[in-house]
Amino acid sequence: MFASAVAVVMVLVAAPAFAAGGQIIINGCTTSWIEGCTFLNTPAQRYALLVNPPKPAPGRGVTVRGVIDEGINICMFQPAIKVLRWNYNRMRCPKTDM
Length: 98
Prior knowledge:
Elements (H helix, E strand, L loop, with lengths): L1 H13 L2 E2 L5 E8 L6 E4 L4 E5 L10 E9 L10 E9 L10
Parallel strand pairs: 4-6
Antiparallel strand pairs: 1-2, 2-3, 2-5, 3-4, 5-6
């Protein structure tokens, strides 16, 4: 029973929340395994972040507000989120060497 409750909570935290105007709000951990690209890892999916500098540092928890972008991007990765705003959060993320 406890494991089921934990699994449900993890899915709810990882799933993007849809805001007004087709925007999403999502939490995850950042990585940069392709040079020049920032990614957001969630338990459910990985997203390329199309973000203007300053970009979030790799290995940090962030909350991202943005719009899903279906077009071709420099990271050549789908899905991508065109970031409108981001901020660090208190998520514990795996350490990264990048």
